[in-house]
Amino acid sequence: MKQTTMKLIEVLKQNRLMRTPTEVNEFEKALAEIIAHPNPEYLPEYHLILDDQCQQPEVMFGLIHVLESFEVETQLQAFLNVIPQLMITAPEWTRILHLRILNDESACQIYQRLLHQNNTNKPHFIYYLLEESTNNYLKAESNL
User: Fold this and answer.
1) Which residues of 23-61 are buried (b: 16+ CB within 10 A; e: fewer)?
2) What gap in Å lies between CA 82 and CA 111, rounded to an integer?
């Protein structure tokens, strides 16, 4: 199964720009296989498929839904592990994921805790900025 998942990830990567109907079809078929056999071990790789140059963002949202189908803390930790790299190829998708997390109260609280842990264990300016953003969002929400 491990080799099959890696092959599916490779298909997703090769077709992630979705410039042609064939690329869209290949992407959707590989994504359907991943949905049928979800494995949280590959969450970092799934995140790194996101690319702002994608020509079919509505299809790419299928990948976002796959990411969000995993247990929240596991998915958030995988996201945090790849943010520095993801910011290079997919800053817009990173922003979208960040906002989706902020808009889910329980996910936002877990996210805040994980950001704080990551900043304590492995400080990075991106984690700091995200933690500040999350703190500000939660403060604003509590004042409503």
Assistant:
1) bbebbbebbeebeeeeeeebbbbbbbbbbeebebeebbe
2) 14
Q: pTM here?
A: 0.88
CA atoms of 114 and 116, how far apart (whole Å): 5
Q: Which residues have a Cβ under 8 Å from the Cβ of 72 and sit 6 or more positions away?
A: 106, 107, 110
- Joined tokens for residue 140: 């604003």
How far is the C-alpha of 128 from the C-alpha of 102, rounded, in Å?
15
**What are the tens digits of pLDDT across the range 48-70?**
999 999 999 999 999 999 999 99
Cβ-proximal residues to 23 (8 Å cutoff; 6+ apart), any chain: 15, 17
